[in-house]
Design brief:
- This protein is of the alpha/beta class.
- 36% of the residues lie in helices and 15% in strands.
- It has twelve helices and twelve strands.
- The strands form two sheets. A seven-stranded mixed sheet has the order 1-7-6-5-4-2-3.
- Helix 2 runs parallel beside helix 8, helix 3 packs parallel to helix 4 and helix 9 packs parallel to helix 12.
- The structure holds pyridoxal-5'-phosphate (PLP).
- The site of pyridoxal-5'-phosphate (PLP) has 14 residues, from helix 3.
Length: 366
């Protein structure tokens, strides 16, 4: 049989072998301690901070999508900080793209820099130079929210241990470990779980020692996922390919709609042939993800647009079945114009979504 397609892979990812009378996906295992006699290290389950069967099921599932070992954490940020804090020491150097997720930048600048780590933040064109002589290279592609696209293979070849924050694409659309990255980190809060109802994150690596280091870090710091969240995320994984298919189609349709209007500026969506990231994205991604960004010229118009849209929820996340958007500048921390909108396409019917976005834009035309 040829390589299974993405839907086939996610439908059964991480499920145990069929057993008479047992469910397809076993329910969440809620336990702090487990019954334990004798050598605790010989037992598969001893105490949930050391490991939990529901986590392992989900880790097997997401790991199978990247052909890697995956280590699950309580959130994307817990996963990101696990890589940073296990990899860097006083005197280490990290190069990061300056458009990467703002909390990752803040973690590096406010928590690592004062502890003696040199943090080099670089704009897209300067990232390769900043990476020279660095110990760790952190890149997020496509980046949130500005959708810069980095050439993973070229940058990973430049020397430092390379980490790709794969949150905006996820493992079905982009496989950075195949392109030379040592780690991927993914916030499973977004597409992977897909219903805007939980936080989770994970790190994937093909190096068993690195994976063990991350599990030890999780055990010792207690950045633990809840079994119920892990189970919900595993349950939702089966529909990932279907959800992405619809959401990516919707994102493309919205990108085309806004790009064709004369009252919308700065449209970014890597699928658009004239997007600066198009060529690299086409080479290294299997799809262009669900986020579109654009500028409505002023904070005031952006807020009116969000209030006028009926099918687009004003909220700060992406990757859900619900379309969402926000005026990103309301947070500070990202270098974006005041009227900048990050739009995350959900799974609504395309015609309905387009009609809604169009009426919201028309009703707020200056
Ligand atoms: C690119 C990226 N990385 C990491 C994170 C952090 O994930 P979490 O909110 O699950 O901690 C986010 C959250 O929005 C993100 O967009």
């Amino acid at each position: 049989m040829s390589e299974p397609g993405p839907s086939t892979r996610v439908v059964r990812a991480g499920l145990p072998e069929p057993q008479q009378g047992e469910p397809f996906l076993p329910g969440p295992v809620f336990a702090a301690p487990f019954h334990l006699t004798g050598d605790p290290y010989a037992a598969e389950n001893a105490y949930t901070r050391y490991g939990n069967p529901t986590w392992r099921g989900y880790e097997d599932a997401v790991g199978s999508l990247e052909d890697a070992e995956s280590v699950l954490f309580a959130s994307g940020m817990a996963a990101a900080s696990a890589i940073l804090l296990t990899s860097l020491r006083p005197g280490s150097v990290i190069a990061m793209d300056d458009g990467c997720y703002h909390a990752v930048r803040r973690l590096a600048q406010e928590h690592l820099e004062p502890r003696g780590v040199e943090v080099r933040l670089a704009p897209p064109a300067g990232l390769a130079a900043a990476a020279e002589g660095a110990d760790l290279l952190w890149l997020e592609t496509p980046s949130n929210p500005t959708l810069e696209v980095y050439d993973i293979a070229v940058l990973a070849e430049s020397g430092p241990v390379t980490v790709v924050d794969n949150t905006t694409a996820g493992p079905l659309l982009q496989r950075p470990l195949d392109l030379g990255a040592a780690y991927t980190i993914t916030s499973a809060t977004k597409h992977l779980s897909g219903h805007a109802d939980l936080l989770l994150g994970y790190v994937s690596t093909r190096d068993p020692e690195r994976a063990q280091e991350l599990r030890d870090w999780r055990r010792d710091t207690g950045a633990l996922p809840g079994p119920f969240e892990a189970w919900l995320a595993h349950r939702s994984l089966a529909t990932l390919a279907l959800r992405l298919e619809r959401s990516c189609d919707n994102a493309m349709a919205v990108a085309r709609l806004v790009a064709a209007r004369d009252d919308v500026e700065g449209v970014r969506y890597p699928s658009l042939p004239d997007d600066p990231g198009h060529e690299v994205a086409r080479r290294q991604m299997a799809g262009y993800s669900t986020i579109v960004s654009f500028d409505l010229g002023s904070a005031e118009r952006a807020e009116r647009f969000l209030a006028a849209a009926r099918l687009v929820t004003d909220a700060t996340s992406f990757g859900s079945v619900h379309s969402m958007a926000e005026r990103r500048g309301r947070w500070g921390g990202d270098s974006v114009p005041e009227g900048f909108i990050r739009f995350s396409a959900g799974c609504e019917d395309t015609a309905d979504l387009l009609a809604d976005v169009e009426q919201a834009l028309d009703s707020t035309r200056n």
